[in-house]
């Protein structure tokens, strides 16, 4: 069976977690904003889009983040680190989100009003731990899109879940309704990433 690799498949195969970056490389803020804008096409629970972003480019801020991120050198070497945050009050945007769906012809006013009511009732009533689980799942979806889009733009990335989340929230003065989920360093690779094997998909999959 002969198959031709698509551009998407190439990007997926080429994306690796890079930990060595060329220092002094600046990514224009408009490029980073375009990256985030494109990534927000990711799906989310009830379309609540609970992700928020803090992009750390300032050299002093990077140095302050370094010990919080357990001294992972990519924090200071890379061009920027995108902190993917979750908003525990994302349901407060339900009205604006579904009003826009009506205005753009995606649904009727009746359906939108029902979705607004159900979304607010559901998410406002969840225990915080359950709500965080929903948000972290959604944050994972957009984080993968960020990394693939970055690769397409010519940049490399590495996701980091290992950092002191409480210290991060305190140091960067996050509002009470926001919490950090993941750090993604981005820049130009100074050394290739290590390759990594994968368990064959046939060993991971069952059909019924």
UniProtKB/TrEMBL annotation:
| rRNA-binding among keywords | no
The protein's superkingdom reads Bacteria
* Keywords, alphabetical: Oxidoreductase
Q: Please give the Gene3D superfamilies that the UniProt record associates with this protein.
A: NADH Oxidase
Q: What is the lineage of its organism?
A: Bacteria, Bacillati, Bacillota, Bacilli, Bacillales
Enzyme Commission identifier(s): 1.7.1.-
Molecular function terms from GO: oxidoreductase activity
Query: What is the protein name given in its UniProt record?
Result: Nitroreductase family protein
Family of this protein? Belongs to the nitroreductase family.
From which source organism is this entry?
A: Kurthia populi
Entry-linked InterPro entries? Nitroreductase (IPR029479), Nitroreductase-like (IPR000415)
């Amino acid at each position: 069976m002969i198959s031709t690799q698509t551009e998407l498949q190439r990007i997926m195969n080429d994306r690796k977690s890079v930990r060595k970056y060329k220092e002094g490389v600046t990514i224009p803020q408009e490029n980073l904003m375009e990256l985030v804008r494109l990534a927000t096409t990711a799906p989310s629970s009830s379309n609540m889009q609970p992700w928020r972003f803090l992009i750390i480019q300032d050299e002093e801020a990077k140095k302050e983040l370094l010990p919080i991120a357990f001294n992972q050198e990519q924090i200071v070497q890379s061009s920027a680190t995108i902190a993917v945050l979750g908003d525990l009050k994302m349901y407060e945007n339900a009205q604006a989100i579904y009003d826009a769906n009506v205005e753009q012809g995606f649904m009727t006013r009746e359906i939108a009003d029902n979705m607004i009511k159900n979304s607010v009732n559901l998410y406002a009533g969840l225990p915080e731990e359950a709500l965080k689980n929903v948000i972290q799942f959604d944050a994972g979806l957009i984080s993968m899109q960020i990394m693939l889009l970055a690769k397409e733009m010519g940049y490399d990335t590495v996701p980091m879940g290992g950092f002191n989340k409480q210290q991060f929230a305190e140091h960067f003065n996050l509002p009470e309704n926001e919490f950090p989920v993941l750090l993604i360093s981005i820049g130009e690779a100074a050394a290739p990433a290590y390759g990594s094997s994968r368990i064959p998909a046939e060993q991971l999959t069952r059909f019924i």
